[in-house]
Amino acid sequence: xxxxxxxxxxxxxxxxxWEGYETILNLLGDRPVRVTYSQGVLELMIxxxxxxxxxxxxxxxxxTLTEELNIPIASAxxxxxxxxxxxxxxxxxxxxxxxxxxxxxxxLSLDLAEDPPPDLAIEVDITHSSIDRMEIYARLGVxxxxxWEQDQLQFWQLQEGQYSPVNISPTLPQISATTLMxxxxxxxxxxxxSIIRRFRAWVRENLITREEDS
Length: 214
What we know:
By secondary structure, the protein is α+β, with helices and mostly antiparallel strands. The chain has one domain (about 50-214): Alpha-Beta Complex (tt1808, chain A). It contains six helices and eleven strands. It has helices at about 20-30, 50-70, 100-105, 135-140, 175-185, 190-214; strands at about 10-15, 35-40, 40-45, 75, 80-85, 90, 95, 120-125, 145-150, 150-160, 160-165. The protein has a six-stranded mixed sheet with strand order 4-7-8-9-10-11. A five-stranded antiparallel sheet has the order 1-3-2-6-5, sandwiched between helices. Helix 2 (about 50-70) packs parallel to helix 6. The longest helix has 22 residues, at about 190-214.
């Protein structure tokens, strides 16, 4: 799968105040630039084609799973999540409200001072960030991160303020990182529609049919 890799462009700035961070966010608007901020250090990253392909396929797999199992979700995409009190902020590659979907249902804006963080974030690490994004996720209280790095998928669960690797998703215990890796590995040779169709068939055969039989 390494043939899909392409370099991303990144710039790291230091001694940036919180006000400077928010000004840069406002100036960028909806431009496709990922902004990460931690205690005065700010990173701007232009995302590669490979990065976008991996994150979208992971998202589609999650969306297919929850659709087939009739699990309510709220997709928050790359919403900027930030806390001034913590001096930290970032945009996940993708993120979802699942267990807390009912708490944000109908909302068109979010404030982490009042609203819960997303239940699950997807993090694709192709060009390594100069800032520890996992530390920011932990400080913001995101319970689970699916991290794609070096052609491997790992689930991470937040426990006592730190992430620990797990194979079974705490948020979606019907799925494992090992199973999703099998479908992610098809990306080099199979189109995305076919991958999703195969995964949907797997869910129906291995999760839904078995549940009905039991």
